[in-house]
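Contributing new records

If you add data, match the layout below exactly. Sequence lines come first and carry their own label; structure lines follow with theirs. Keep one chain per record. Anything else will be rejected by the validation script.
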Amino acid sequence: MTPPVVWMLLGEDLRRLRVGRGLTQVQAALHLGCHLSKISRIEQGQHRVTQRDVEVLLDHYRASPRDRAEADILLTAPDLEDGHYWDGSPLAGLRMAALTADATTVQAWNACYFPGPLQTPAYARALLDAGPLDLDPDQADQVADTRRSKRHPGQRLTVYLAESVLHRPWGGHRVMAEQLEHLRATGRSRRVTVRVIPASRAFVASDLTVLTMPASRPDLMCQDQMSHAGYYTAPQQLHRAQLVMAGASDAALDESTSARLIRDACARYGDFPRPRSTSGRRNFS
């Protein structure tokens, strides 16, 4: 049986709280009085966790009232036959970033802003400030920093961007200049592909991310809206998502031409300090 998405989200929350307290899975297992493998399965979303176990772990992790309330929401969420869940929590950004970091392959189509794995903290913070999330400054900084958290070893990232994203200066020109330079540096990685869909080529679809998860977890189709996120695991939804990605690939420019558009966008935002570049197969300079 495929684990419901809510198990995965609850597991990510519990892992985040444990790591935030500097505790290991061994310490959590000793406190709960269970085998280490149970903690691992809970955090991976492979084990239906009981309310009693969640309460014990939340006490051990000194969870805040907000984190406890969010756990209660997930514990009482219904198991939906079509495998979807709409997450309107203030923690949605953290959860989405954690799941994205765990994926072995990420495919993203974005028409409004750069996707989470490619965002600088300043750019992510500008998006959060423009949205409706009720976050205090520390929480907003945590979400922004997590948007480009450590990724799964060997993760392959493929991004299709609407050309308009290159010209929409969230946070102002300096933030956008830094963001574009970060995109150029990241694009040099052998495991990152960035392709631009020009305005002259018609392609209409909602922003979408497809996460290929490790074998023990279901793949996900995600709609990441910064302030909320939708998750889908049903085969028909995943098939539709792959059709969107195939359409984006057909409409997108090749990598070299895309790199030139990104370089030109950088030039338009002025000569701001640039991050150190990294080596790789493509030259974005």
